[in-house]
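User: I want to check something. If I give you two sequences, will you return the structure for each one separately, not as a complex?

Assistant: Yes, each is folded on its own. Here is the first sequence with its structure:
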Amino acid sequence: MISVNETGLCVFNEMLDFANEMNLEIHEQKNGSTVIDAGVSVAGGYEAGLYLSRICLADLADLEYTTFDLGGIMVPAIRVSTDHPIVACMASQYAGWRISVGKYFAMGSGPARALSLNPKKLYAEINYKDSYSDAVLVLESDKLPPEEVTEKIAKDCNVDPSNLHIVVAPTASIAGSVQISARIVETGIHKMESIGFDINTIKSGYGIAPISPIVGDSTKCMGSTNDCIIYCGKTYYNVRYDMEKVKELIVKVPSGTSSSYGKPFFTTFKEAGFDFFKVDAGVFAPSEITINELNSAKTFTSGKIDQEVLMKSFGISRL
């Protein structure tokens, strides 16, 4: 079985080697934990975002920058393809770890989740377990974690703090924006899982999503980065599943089926009093999904993109 922490550590070490070129800053904590700042107090950038995304996916996907035509305006985009969709996306990339210690809060994603088993139900469903000596984690946060946080993370992963390797990038940073758009394939799989699709039948995944500009603080950028997937994210999967079930479920996957669809996410979130529980979780999905069912050799598609909402979200002005 592939160790997501072993493959992720290789990418982390590359980031250490090219820290200056990628505008990163390395922090060695007293407990031995290594923390890379990819956008909190340094510039970071597109290269850092690519490496951040590679770690999230345990380096089990190909990532490539491309462009997206948004109403006649060229914006950057990222293309993701993987032949290990469940391990890369669900065992590693899925942001399923809410890290809260004292006043510090971050969303954790990447290989270390498989050591902490966050969430346990998902790992049981996909029948995956990692037992590597080192833990590699990506934190979405405006602040670097203090030692009390890295101590807690290391304990939860059952590793020594000196074997803990963390990269941090805020949502309102170029690297942070890139790694969120790179979740395009994972977001579709997560939505499929939530509606009863047997995700273990997914053999490969492909997706493309535009990358948000920095539009404000982290809350505003949380809106625009999610909108990249919700309104203009496209996915394609190869599965071996019952064809009738594919036809039944695929129409329920796109974000457009959600009651919270139709406005920039920041607007929806604000109207909900910034309470996630008042927002329909079904909106967190790609705008379009296509499935090639391999047993029947049939292909089905559902959903459509909405460039107008994304234009509003980005706040682009023509001069």
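And separately, the second sequence with its own structure:
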Amino acid sequence: MYTEEYNDISITLSQFVLRLTGVWITANNSEERQRILVASYTVLMNMYGLYLNLGDAYCSQGDFSRCIFLICNTLCILLGLFKLLVVNIRRTAFKDLILFARQNFWHFKYDREEKVLFMKCRQFCKLWAITACSFAQVSLAFYIITPLAANIGRNKSDRVLPFKIWVDLPVSETPYYEIMFVVQLLAVQQAGAVYMCNDTFMCVLNMHVICQFRILQHRLLNLWSIIDEKQMNSIDYADSYYTALKKCIQQHQSLIEFCDNLEHVYTLPIFGHVVVFSLLMCLDMYEIVLADVPISTRLIFVFHMIGSLVHILFFTYSCHGLIEESENISMATYSGWWMVLPMTETGKMLRRDIKMMMMKSMRPCYLSAGGFFPVSLETCTALISSTVSYFTLIKGSSGKITEE
């Protein structure tokens, strides 16, 4: 175990967003009170966002494009709140994940080859975290740019907000307009943070687990050559190998336990995202291709759709990698000189443990969507195919509504 401070931009960025939404773990009572306060603020801002979108949708029933825009926003808010609720309910398991990763993953006490694998993992996580946060911020920025562009040339009494408020108040006049604009800006920012914070950190954890499986394979493949350099007889050789093998078995067991914990925390958020993803992508495509909306509103959904595609590709790639790398432990365990070792008591125990490790590896680790099916690259293709089907359906429906 290693408890030294570890710095990495992907973890720092994920930690910042998780703290911003009141999800990150705390070290004392003071931090816990601050976290509860931030979490309450997050829920309040998201509930306010739901009120704005649902109220506007109710009063804009005759405007199909406007309703699609508001439904898309509502789904994003509800999905973010669902993920936030699940992770907070399973907070103990979430804390265990972070503490285990700190002690066993996030350090630099690796040999040269293992450090190469670890640095590749860091680079991938860095790319993912920066990409996810960038697309999220660009999408959120256009929620602010849209009303600002619409207000150019208008009188102060005729200004528009990011979301229309159906109340009998002079919200377009100073200072009410400025106050409501800032409040809506904060609600948009907090809704965006909730929507992407858990998924970003989950992918970072997933990639580090994959890296650890690769490191374990490297250690299993190099056990024989390391021991052989000591020029031992066959009996001492078997004893030394069995001692080294037991350390690898313990690492394998801890990785399996970590994956089970990761599955426990994130299986329902994954399920929620998979269920809503195709519908969100379909609504994005409608707003981009068919809806009669301002270019700034269209750009919101362009960046949201690109960000969603990048997210699902990164996520399913990491889940697919987890399945493959955990399964490859079986071949790495088998590849060695254990067949020529003597059939002593140690030799028999060694062969038995190798067989058990191979059998465990044949059932790979994976992340599932609510326990219904494991997530892999096939999930990505299935979701994109569903998106096209939904878009075809909504395109036909919108055509009928226009004709009527």
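Because they were folded independently, the notes below concern the second chain alone. The two ends are 68 Å apart (CA to CA). Residues 234-289 form the longest helix (56 residues).
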